[in-house]
Design a protein that fits this description.
By secondary structure, this protein is an alpha+beta fold. The protein is 30% helix and 27% strand. The strands form 5 sheets. It has a 4-stranded antiparallel sheet with strand order 4-1-6-7, with no helix packed on it. The protein has a 4-stranded antiparallel sheet with strand order 3-2-5-8, with no helix packed on it. Strand 10 and strand 11 form a beta hairpin. Helix 2 runs antiparallel to helix 7. It is globular and about 75 Å long.
């Protein structure tokens, strides 16, 4: 019996070590059923908080870039996708939830050299159109304004090129006071410590597969995103009750591992009201997981997991609170 105890102790230690290392356990279908039910209840909670609008005007950025790396902000709020591959990238990106309400808005760009280059070269080209649909993704959109990098950008011999463009938007909602009343983060002495603690907490939730707990934590601060994007029950179900590789919800990735948060820098943005961490060299997300989709992939690439998934979050400190919470 003693050896049996010893065995279970070693096993318990192994399991503890595995979860500590950022590796993961897999949930069975039976375990998923109550999880799905809880997600459905959460969706109902979201829907109970949001207003619906008869008109659904929608604004997007059509981003095209080549020969450089690009970061884009709207009203100094980074869009949730970083265009930091060295090759060409193109995307239609929804920005309603960055506008927060009607009025004048500004899109700004930061153009970085490709990896391994010290300055922005003549190959760099960025074109951004602000696109407006009178009714979300219905009919033909109109281009409101357009931003182009100059053709002689390579002559400038600069490590970073910036530019911006403004436009007016008319929206049925107004949530501007969320950031207007938020704490100025430049006044928080131990900000980086607080930010890192939050990121590590989210990383641990990913390791523990606590997708529901994570969604629940975000509910209070992110229901406004649902409203500004006019998301109904179906759209929310598509997001919430679908495979999520970051939390291994509804999927079984092979040899899943969460990368440690390191070699990062802290970025305060949103005119001092928002903060996030990014990888210092790559300029992208610090919350990253790696895995294989198939056993075949693993066989062909035993040294390096073939798939990476990552997550972008932006934190703020609501009025009257000393806690950082996720707004995006």
């Amino acid at each position: 019996n003693n050896t049996h105890n010893m065995k279970s102790m070693i096993l318990a230690l192994l399991v503890a070590m595995l979860s500590f290392n950022g590796y993961a356990q897999v949930k069975t279908e039976k375990e998923m059923k109550p999880e799905i039910k809880k997600m459905e209840e959460l969706i109902q909670e979201y829907l109970g908080m949001v207003k619906t609008y008869p008109e659904k005007p929608a604004y997007y950025l059509q981003v095209n870039k080549t020969g450089c790396r690009l970061l884009v902000r709207v009203n100094d709020i980074p869009v949730g996708y970083h265009f930091v591959k060295n090759d060409g990238q193109s995307m239609l990106y929804p920005i309603n939830d960055l506008l927060l309400g009607s009025g004048k808005h500004t899109v700004s760009i930061q153009v970085y050299p490709r990896t391994g280059e010290t300055e922005v070269t003549k190959d760099a080209g960025v074109n951004i159109k602000v696109v407006h649909y009178k009714e979300k993704l219905v009919g033909t959109p109109e281009t409101l304004v357009e931003l182009d990098t100059p053709t002689d950008i390579g002559m400038k011999k600069i490590p970073l090129y910036t530019d911006s463009i403004s436009f007016n938007a008319t929206l049925p909602f107004n949530h501007k006071k969320i950031l207007a009343e938020a704490t100025d983060l430049q006044t928080i002495p131990d900000l980086e410590e607080k930010v890192l603690a939050h990121y590590n907490r989210v990383r641990q939730m990913m390791i523990d597969g606590n997708c529901y707990e994570y969604r629940k934590m975000r509910l209070a601060s992110t229901w406004v995103l649902t409203e500004m994007n006019y998301l109904g029950k179906e759209a929310l179900e598509k997001t919430y009750i679908d495979s999520n590789y970051l939390f291994r919800f509804f999927c079984n990735p092979i040899d899943w591992i969460a990368e440690p948060i390191q070699n990062y820098e802290m970025v305060v943005c949103g005119n001092g009201k928002l903060v996030y961490l990014r990888r210092r060299l790559e300029l992208d997300n610090v919350l990253r997981v790696r895995f294989y989709d198939t056993e075949e992939e693993k066989r062909l690439s035993p040294e390096k997991r073939t798939v990476t998934a990552s997550k972008f979050i932006l934190l703020y400190m609501p009025k009257g609170s000393d806690e950082l919470v996720e707004l995006y």
